[in-house]
Write a structure and sequence with these properties.
alpha+beta
Length: 633
């Protein structure tokens, strides 16, 4: 019953270990492995944000340049009012390509290159002079900003009904609660519109659909940014955030008195600057695109770094400047990119990874580290769990053995006490008057007392453990072995044992007499218990190098090889049942070895040829002129 309870308790402790340690560690390991599998996505997203920040800075720098370009052209064209004023403008302003004057519907060009004049007339002549229409480009956010600003925030994908528009509105005072808040400026509305377009694809789809119905032309981008395609099953082209609608020059003049007008042709992009003078005429010039490209390049950061390649792509998807790289670059498939401005339709600033395999190699390296860490964790957990379970099992087994030990010791103490009491009562009663019988009773009482004394010594030795320190003196261990055998002779011969003793010479050792005596008593007692029909005990004392060797052999039942080392463990018995035919506590041999090792020696077992067992005690010899040698094998 006790064994069963101990086993149940051990199982409970193992279950606690499993659910409190192993299961959480397994869950954390699975999370770590899942994170490792997505490591490339995390790295790509982090790198995408970094490169997009750099691309956005370059985009703002280019837009600042375009704003400065408009201001520069406005300033340089101030005071120009007639055809003769166009010549010095052309000569002084390197941005100017083909200056023109539109007066009373008639177009006059001031150029030095007939070919450039021909290209100008082909691109803008009919538009300026004859009322033809050209596509005018603008951003979706600018064209659709009012609708996007007024769109309910729930429809735009925001959790709050107030939305981001409320951020720009001042908090009303107590006096202004009933006053409607003033709407943000046009620029602020555009920023809010761009935010909504970037956040929610549904809003983008609705905006493009509405603009298409209003006659705006929606086009595809020239590039397919790879970072945006990471979680898509197949690459998809994105719609450009720049849309166009045809207007005549008269329509443009009705809306503003100056502007920059881009025109996309088979030759590429052309830019036209125009301005209405005080007299009502129109002056302007086409922009030298080579000069503009040089200025744009000057606004870019370093084109090449260890991490990325950055440049501007024109409307055909070709770089306006291509840095030299070791690898061929697919210009239509950058890592990240941004459209620049409606003034440069379909132009983009884009960045490519210097080493496209960098992300995958970093992800693989991180995954390997995580896998190795998880594997190491599992090994540690498995080893720790195994050791803990072994310790729990060991402690439960020791607890059970101690319980059995207490019961066994009680039984072992009671048996000799019962015999001593029985024979003492018989002697005291005076009924037995035969002197031989009386002597026999006394010898039995002495034998049982010796047995009781040995049992008590074992219990005391066990209770002291390794903390006991022995007072040692020089003694002849062969003589000690002989004395112990003679002391036990009456009892052993009565049990039918044939005893023999031999000694080659004096074997002096440094030891504690009582402790070494206990070693002999325990070994001989063990031989007595495990002898069956053939009852023989021989003690041989001899010199073996620097050691005194006492060999105690019997013809008992022997010990199986698998149990040869276990017999020296505390509480170990071949038959641990209380009902076993051979009584004992399972401490005798353990205590004997411990005492021998405290003396620098050892006790070991060997099978005896012909059957039985031999226990060999090795103790270092002592010559009185130095310390004894140790024997810990």
């Amino acid at each position: 019953m006790k064994v069963k309870l101990g086993r149940n308790k051990s199982i409970s402790l193992l279950l606690i270990l499993f659910f409190a340690v192993i299961v959480p560690c397994m869950a954390l390991s699975l999370l770590a492995l899942r994170a490792a599998d997505r490591e490339s996505v995390y790295l790509e997203k982090r790198l995408e944000n970094t490169l997009l920040a750099e691309v956005d800075l370059a985009t703002r720098a280019v837009n600042d340049l375009l704003s400065a370009l408009t201001s520069e052209l406005l300033e340089s064209s101030s005071g120009v009012s007639g055809i003769f004023d166009l010549r010095p403008w052309h000569q002084d302003e390197i941005l100017s390509d083909v200056p023109f004057l539109l007066k009373n519907g008639k177009l006059t060009l001031v150029g030095v290159n007939p070919r450039r004049e021909e290209v100008f007339l082909e691109s803008f002549g009919a538009f300026l002079e004859n009322g033809a229409t050209l596509p005018v480009y603008d951003s979706v956010a600018q064209v659709y900003k009012k609708e996007l600003y007024d769109m309910p925030d729930e429809k735009a994908g925001y959790a709050s009904s107030a939305g981001i528009s409320a951020v720009l509105a001042p908090a009303p005072s107590a006096e202004e609660d009933a006053v409607k808040m003033k709407k943000p400026s046009s620029a602020a509305q555009k920023q809010l519109a761009e935010s909504k377009l970037a956040i929610d694809p549904r809003v983008r789809e609705e905006a493009f659909s509405a603009l298409s119905e209003q006659g705006f032309e929606v086009s595809q981008r020239n590039v397919i940014p790879q970072a945006a395609q990471a979680e898509k099953e197949a690459p998809t082209e994105d719609l450009s955030v720049t849309v166009s609608k045809n207007y005549s020059f008269r329509d443009l003049r009705a809306r503003d008195n100056h502007g920059l007008l881009p025109r996309l042709t088979d030759r590429g992009l052309s830019l036209l600057f125009w301005r209405t003078t005080e007299s009502g005429d129109v002056i302007g010039t086409s922009i030298d695109m080579n000069v503009l490209k040089d200025r744009l390049i000057g606004r870019l950061p370093a084109l090449y770094s260890d991490a990325r390649v950055l440049t501007i792509l024109d409307n055909a998807g070709n770089p306006i400047i291509a840095p030299e790289t070791e690898r061929a670059i697919d210009w239509r498939r950058p890592f990240v990119s941004r459209e620049i401005s409606p003034l440069l339709p379909r132009w983009e600033i884009a960045a490519w990874l210097t080493d496209p395999d960098l992300l995958s190699s970093q992800a693989q390296f991180t995954k390997r580290i995580v896998w190795v860490s998880v594997a190491a964790l599992f090994l540690v957990i498995a080893a720790g769990s195994y050791l803990v379970s072994r310790m729990i099992s060991y402690e439960m087994r020791i607890a059970g053995q101690k319980t059995t030990f207490v019961a066994t010791v009680s039984h072992e103490l009671k048996t000799p006490l019962t015999s001593i009491r029985l024979f003492a009562e018989m002697l005291l009663s005076g009924k037995q008057r035969d002197e031989e019988k009386q002597k026999e009773y006394l010898k039995t009482m002495m034998s049982e007392a010796e047995r009781l004394s040995g049992l008590v010594d074992n219990v005391l030795a066990f209770s002291k453990g390794d903390g006991v320190e022995y007072q040692k003196q020089e003694l002849d261990i062969g003589e000690l072995a002989h004395d112990v055998l003679e002391q036990l002779r009456p009892h052993l011969e009565k049990q039918g044992f044939a005893l023999s003793f031999e000694k080659e010479q004096n074997l002096f050792v440094l030891g504690n007499r009582e402790a070494l005596k206990q070693v002999f008593m325990n070994i001989i007692s063990n031989a007595e218990k495990y002898s069956d029909k053939s009852r023989e005990i021989s003690v041989a004392c001899l010199k073996n190098g620097a050691f005194a060797q006492i060999r105690i052999a019997d013809r008992g039942i022997g010990i199986a090889p698998a149990q040869a080392q276990k017999i020296f463990d505390e509480f170990y018995r071949v038959d641990e049942s209380l009902a076993a035919l051979r009584s004992g506590t399972g401490l005798g041999l353990s205590i004997a070895r411990n005492i021998a090792r405290k003396h620098g020696g050892n006790v070991r077992h060997e099978p005896r040829p012909g059957g039985g067992s031999a226990f060999i005690l090795d103790i270092p010899l002592y010559h009185g002129d130095g310390e004894a040698k140790r024997h810990d094998t």
